[in-house]
Write a structure and sequence with these properties.
Blueprint (H helix, E strand, L loop, with lengths): L7 E5 L4 H12 L3 E6 L2 H11 L3 E5 L5 H14 L3 E6 L14 H22 L3 E10 L12 H20 L6 E7 L6 H4 L7 H11 L8 H12 L10 E4 L7
Parallel strand pairs: 1-2, 1-4, 2-3, 4-5, 5-6, 6-7
Length: about 250
């Protein structure tokens, strides 16, 4: 039997990268999936590829009204939620003295506040025994140059997960963190890695990762599937680092 047969999953940032790979894995295992993304064309393209089991909505997670709309749409379409994956995020790489108030607020608004209120808006729809997955980063454990604000925003959601694992225990809702290491996703281009520079970038990163390469999105998706399914039925409050060992160096 498929691992998520008959279940409903919600994935923010589900139109590309790790979120989309997780949506693919969840659909393949029988789930109905609602994805949220910022760009209509990207959301529509992702839903078309995911098939009839998928539903897409456009919105900015930093706008708290988006979470009300998402919860209402999922309730009307699916009735309840079994898996909520708070995956949308952003990163501005800049030294701390150069960080503006707007940059700080944007990162905490998307990476931290949006996750807190996204989860609390989804919670009334969560079935007993559901799974909440928060996508963090190895930046919260390993000091990366010019990542102070991003690291802080991710460390906060790891604290949320630990608190929620106890707070939601009466409903048997499990709350876990997925912390990717360097992963081959479109975000690399958004961070300024030009196509011509990719080989040198990947070679440099590979040298710093004990397993010698970047992660692929399907590898993060398999970890997300583990946390979403009954394979992790006795796992809550953990931070699963899928980072090739880079946090150890």
């Amino acid at each position: 039997m498929k691992k998520l047969m008959g279940k409903t999953a919600v994935i923010t940032g589900g139109n590309s990268g790790i979120g989309y790979a997780a949506a693919q894995a969840f659909v393949a295992e029988g789930a109905r999936v609602a994805i949220l993304g910022r760009r209509r064309e990207a959301v529509d393209a992702a839903v078309a590829k995911l098939g009839a089991s998928a539903f897409g909505m456009v919105g900015d997670v930093a706008d708290l009204a988006t979470h009300d709309r998402l919860a209402a749409a999922v309730r009307d379409r699916f009735g309840a939620i079994d898996v909520y994956m708070a995956n949308a995020g952003m990163n501005h790489i800049e030294p701390s003295p150069a960080v503006s108030v707007d940059s700080y607020d944007a990162q905490f608004g998307t990476n931290t506040r949006a996750i807190f209120f996204g989860v609390t808006k989804a919670l009334p729809l969560m079935r007993e025994g559901g799974s909440i997955i928060l996508t963090s980063s190895i930046a919260s454990a390993k000091v990366l140059e010019n990542h102070a604000v991003y690291a802080g925003s991710k460390a906060a959601i790891e604290a949320f997960a630990r608190a929620w694992a106890l707070e939601f225990k009466s409903r048997k809702i499990r709350v876990n963190v997925l912390s990717p290491g360097p992963t081959d996703t479109p975000i690399l281009e958004k961070l300024g890695v030009a196509a011509a520079d990719r080989p040198a970038f990947e070679q440099g990163m590979a040298a710093a990762i004990p397993l010698g390469r970047l992660a692929q999105t399907h590898e993060l998706a398999r970890a997300a599937l583990f946390l979403a399914s009954d394979d992790s039925s006795f796992v809550t409050g953990v931070n699963l680092r899928v980072d090739g060992g880079i946090a150890l160096t």
